[in-house]
Protein backbone atom coordinates (compact mmCIF):
# COMPACT_ATOMS: atom_id res chain seq x y z
CA UNK A 1 0.00 0.00 0.00
CA UNK A 2 1.28 3.45 -0.85
CA UNK A 3 -0.31 5.90 1.57
CA UNK A 4 0.26 7.61 4.88
CA UNK A 5 0.09 5.02 7.66
CA UNK A 6 0.75 5.61 11.35
CA UNK A 7 -0.28 3.99 14.57
CA UNK A 8 -3.21 5.98 15.83
CA UNK A 9 -1.65 6.98 19.14
CA UNK A 10 1.53 8.18 17.40
CA UNK A 11 -0.20 10.64 15.10
CA UNK A 12 -0.07 14.39 15.74
CA UNK A 13 -3.62 14.58 14.40
CA UNK A 14 -4.80 13.25 17.77
CA UNK A 15 -3.95 16.63 19.29
CA UNK A 16 -5.93 18.57 16.67
CA UNK A 17 -9.56 19.57 16.99
CA UNK A 18 -10.71 16.46 15.11
CA UNK A 19 -11.72 13.81 17.62
CA UNK A 20 -10.78 10.25 16.65
CA UNK A 21 -12.75 7.72 18.71
CA UNK A 22 -11.29 4.26 19.28
CA UNK A 23 -14.68 2.69 18.64
CA UNK A 24 -17.83 3.94 16.92
CA UNK A 25 -20.97 1.90 16.34
CA UNK A 26 -19.93 -1.53 15.08
CA UNK A 27 -16.45 -0.36 14.04
CA UNK A 28 -13.13 -0.55 15.89
CA UNK A 29 -10.63 2.03 14.63
CA UNK A 30 -7.09 0.70 14.27
CA UNK A 31 -4.87 3.35 12.68
CA UNK A 32 -4.64 6.63 10.82
CA UNK A 33 -4.09 6.35 7.06
CA UNK A 34 -4.51 9.94 5.84
CA UNK A 35 -5.40 13.49 6.76
CA UNK A 36 -6.54 16.73 5.16
CA UNK A 37 -7.86 20.15 6.01
CA UNK A 38 -11.29 19.22 7.36
CA UNK A 39 -10.92 15.48 7.87
CA UNK A 40 -8.78 12.48 8.69
CA UNK A 41 -9.10 8.97 7.27
CA UNK A 42 -8.69 5.95 9.51
CA UNK A 43 -8.61 2.21 8.99
CA UNK A 44 -11.25 0.32 10.94
CA UNK A 45 -12.67 -3.17 11.29
CA UNK A 46 -16.34 -4.10 11.27
CA UNK A 47 -16.78 -6.01 14.53
CA UNK A 48 -19.56 -8.15 13.05
CA UNK A 49 -18.06 -9.12 9.68
CA UNK A 50 -14.34 -8.49 10.39
CA UNK A 51 -14.22 -6.55 7.12
CA UNK A 52 -11.71 -3.72 6.89
CA UNK A 53 -13.19 -0.33 6.02
CA UNK A 54 -11.94 3.21 5.69
CA UNK A 55 -13.69 5.88 7.75
CA UNK A 56 -13.41 9.54 6.84
CA UNK A 57 -13.86 11.60 10.01
CA UNK A 58 -14.92 15.15 9.20
CA UNK A 59 -14.74 18.09 11.58
CA UNK A 60 -18.39 19.15 11.73
CA UNK A 61 -17.63 22.62 13.11
CA UNK A 62 -15.15 23.46 10.33
CA UNK A 63 -17.49 22.11 7.68
CA UNK A 64 -20.36 24.23 8.97
CA UNK A 65 -18.18 27.32 9.37
CA UNK A 66 -17.04 27.00 5.76
CA UNK A 67 -20.60 26.45 4.51
CA UNK A 68 -19.87 23.11 2.85
CA UNK A 69 -22.15 20.83 4.88
CA UNK A 70 -24.89 21.01 2.25
CA UNK A 71 -22.41 20.08 -0.49
CA UNK A 72 -21.08 17.16 1.55
CA UNK A 73 -24.55 15.82 2.21
CA UNK A 74 -25.48 16.17 -1.47
CA UNK A 75 -22.37 14.16 -2.40
CA UNK A 76 -23.23 11.48 0.15
CA UNK A 77 -26.83 11.17 -1.02
CA UNK A 78 -25.55 10.62 -4.54
CA UNK A 79 -22.69 8.24 -3.77
CA UNK A 80 -24.76 6.00 -1.49
CA UNK A 81 -27.10 5.29 -4.42
CA UNK A 82 -24.36 3.79 -6.57
CA UNK A 83 -23.95 0.04 -6.95
CA UNK A 84 -21.23 -0.81 -9.46
CA UNK A 85 -17.98 -2.79 -9.18
CA UNK A 86 -15.94 0.13 -10.54
CA UNK A 87 -17.36 2.77 -8.22
CA UNK A 88 -16.26 3.01 -4.61
CA UNK A 89 -18.90 2.06 -2.07
CA UNK A 90 -20.08 4.31 0.74
CA UNK A 91 -21.60 2.03 3.37
CA UNK A 92 -23.05 4.44 5.89
CA UNK A 93 -22.77 7.85 7.51
CA UNK A 94 -22.65 8.35 11.28
CA UNK A 95 -23.43 11.78 12.71
CA UNK A 96 -21.94 12.85 16.05
CA UNK A 97 -22.25 16.35 17.59
CA UNK A 98 -18.67 17.29 16.65
CA UNK A 99 -17.78 14.92 13.82
CA UNK A 100 -19.29 13.20 10.79
CA UNK A 101 -18.02 9.69 10.05
CA UNK A 102 -18.29 8.36 6.49
CA UNK A 103 -17.75 4.60 6.31
CA UNK A 104 -16.32 3.59 2.95
CA UNK A 105 -14.75 0.74 1.06
CA UNK A 106 -11.06 0.34 1.91
CA UNK A 107 -8.47 0.32 -0.88
CA UNK A 108 -5.15 -1.23 0.19
CA UNK A 109 -3.37 -0.38 -3.07
CA UNK A 110 -3.89 3.38 -2.98
CA UNK A 111 -4.68 5.62 -5.95
CA UNK A 112 -3.25 5.91 -9.45
CA UNK A 113 -1.63 9.27 -8.72
CA UNK A 114 0.35 7.86 -5.79
CA UNK A 115 1.39 4.78 -7.73
CA UNK A 116 2.67 6.85 -10.66
CA UNK A 117 4.48 9.22 -8.30
CA UNK A 118 6.24 6.24 -6.72
CA UNK A 119 7.37 4.99 -10.13
CA UNK A 120 5.00 2.04 -10.49
CA UNK A 121 4.82 0.83 -14.11
CA UNK A 122 1.79 -0.99 -15.46
CA UNK A 123 1.93 -3.70 -18.11
CA UNK A 124 -0.13 -3.31 -21.27
CA UNK A 125 -2.66 -5.82 -19.97
CA UNK A 126 -2.94 -3.97 -16.67
CA UNK A 127 -3.43 -0.68 -18.51
CA UNK A 128 -6.23 -2.22 -20.57
CA UNK A 129 -7.88 -3.64 -17.44
CA UNK A 130 -7.73 -0.27 -15.69
CA UNK A 131 -9.02 1.64 -18.73
CA UNK A 132 -11.96 -0.71 -19.25
CA UNK A 133 -12.84 -0.62 -15.56
CA UNK A 134 -12.89 3.17 -15.40
CA UNK A 135 -14.94 3.35 -18.61
CA UNK A 136 -17.44 0.87 -17.19
CA UNK A 137 -17.79 3.03 -14.09
CA UNK A 138 -18.24 6.17 -16.18
CA UNK A 139 -20.79 4.42 -18.38
CA UNK A 140 -22.79 3.50 -15.27
CA UNK A 141 -22.85 7.15 -14.22
CA UNK A 142 -23.57 8.54 -17.69
CA UNK A 143 -26.47 6.14 -18.27
CA UNK A 144 -28.05 7.86 -15.28
CA UNK A 145 -27.29 11.35 -16.57
CA UNK A 146 -24.60 11.91 -13.94
CA UNK A 147 -21.23 13.47 -14.73
CA UNK A 148 -18.28 13.09 -12.37
CA UNK A 149 -16.49 16.32 -13.41
CA UNK A 150 -13.17 15.51 -11.73
CA UNK A 151 -11.79 12.38 -13.36
CA UNK A 152 -8.03 12.23 -12.75
CA UNK A 153 -5.44 9.72 -11.47
CA UNK A 154 -5.97 10.82 -7.86
CA UNK A 155 -9.63 9.80 -8.07
CA UNK A 156 -8.97 6.27 -9.32
CA UNK A 157 -8.17 3.78 -6.56
CA UNK A 158 -7.45 0.05 -6.55
CA UNK A 159 -8.63 -2.90 -4.52
CA UNK A 160 -6.47 -5.91 -3.63
CA UNK A 161 -6.95 -7.39 -7.14
CA UNK A 162 -6.00 -4.14 -8.91
CA UNK A 163 -9.60 -3.47 -9.91
CA UNK A 164 -9.99 0.29 -10.49
CA UNK A 165 -12.73 2.22 -8.72
CA UNK A 166 -13.85 5.82 -9.14
CA UNK A 167 -14.01 7.96 -5.99
CA UNK A 168 -14.82 11.55 -4.95
CA UNK A 169 -18.22 12.72 -6.15
CA UNK A 170 -18.01 16.19 -4.65
CA UNK A 171 -18.31 17.87 -8.07
CA UNK A 172 -20.69 15.34 -9.62
CA UNK A 173 -23.86 16.61 -11.21
CA UNK A 174 -27.16 15.09 -12.26
CA UNK A 175 -28.93 16.31 -15.42
CA UNK A 176 -25.49 17.17 -16.73
CA UNK A 177 -26.04 17.64 -20.48
CA UNK A 178 -26.06 21.44 -20.21
CA UNK A 179 -23.82 22.83 -17.45
CA UNK A 180 -22.27 26.23 -16.79
CA UNK A 181 -20.08 25.88 -13.69
CA UNK A 182 -16.32 25.73 -14.24
CA UNK A 183 -14.86 23.06 -12.00
CA UNK A 184 -12.40 20.20 -11.93
CA UNK A 185 -8.60 20.04 -12.01
CA UNK A 186 -6.92 22.39 -14.55
CA UNK A 187 -4.82 19.84 -16.46
CA UNK A 188 -7.84 17.59 -16.95
CA UNK A 189 -10.68 19.98 -17.83
CA UNK A 190 -12.12 19.86 -21.34
CA UNK A 191 -11.53 22.94 -23.56
CA UNK A 192 -15.24 23.72 -23.80
CA UNK A 193 -15.41 24.17 -20.03
CA UNK A 194 -13.13 27.18 -20.49
CA UNK A 195 -14.10 28.55 -23.89
CA UNK A 196 -17.84 27.89 -24.08
CA UNK A 197 -20.85 29.33 -22.31
CA UNK A 198 -22.12 25.84 -21.51
CA UNK A 199 -20.85 22.28 -21.75
CA UNK A 200 -21.90 18.65 -21.49
CA UNK A 201 -20.49 17.24 -18.26
CA UNK A 202 -20.46 13.67 -19.53
CA UNK A 203 -18.43 14.61 -22.60
CA UNK A 204 -16.06 16.54 -20.34
CA UNK A 205 -15.59 13.33 -18.34
CA UNK A 206 -14.42 11.53 -21.48
CA UNK A 207 -11.84 14.25 -22.16
CA UNK A 208 -10.53 13.96 -18.60
CA UNK A 209 -10.46 10.18 -18.94
CA UNK A 210 -8.30 10.57 -22.06
CA UNK A 211 -5.77 12.70 -20.17
CA UNK A 212 -5.79 10.16 -17.35
CA UNK A 213 -5.21 7.35 -19.83
CA UNK A 214 -2.21 9.25 -21.22
CA UNK A 215 -0.76 9.46 -17.70
CA UNK A 216 -1.34 5.74 -17.22
CA UNK A 217 0.31 4.82 -20.53
CA UNK A 218 3.34 7.10 -20.16
CA UNK A 219 3.86 6.60 -16.44
CA UNK A 220 3.63 10.34 -15.88
CA UNK A 221 1.35 12.20 -13.48
CA UNK A 222 2.05 15.63 -14.94
Automatic annotation (TrEMBL):
Q: Which GO terms describe its molecular function?
A: ATP binding; protein serine/threonine kinase activity
**Record bears the keyword Transferase:** yes
Q: Where does ATP bind?
A: 56
- Which residue ranges does the record assign to the Protein kinase domain? 27-222
**One of this protein's Pfam families, by short name?**
Pkinase
GO term, biological process aspect, one: regulation of cell cycle
Keywords noted in UniProt: ATP-binding, Kinase, Nucleotide-binding, Serine/threonine-protein kinase, Transferase
Similarity comment: Belongs to the protein kinase superfamily.
This chain belongs to the protein called CAMK family protein kinase
Q: Which organism is it from?
A: Trichomonas vaginalis (strain ATCC PRA-98 / G3)
Q: What is the lineage of its organism?
A: Eukaryota, Metamonada, Parabasalia, Trichomonadida, Trichomonadidae
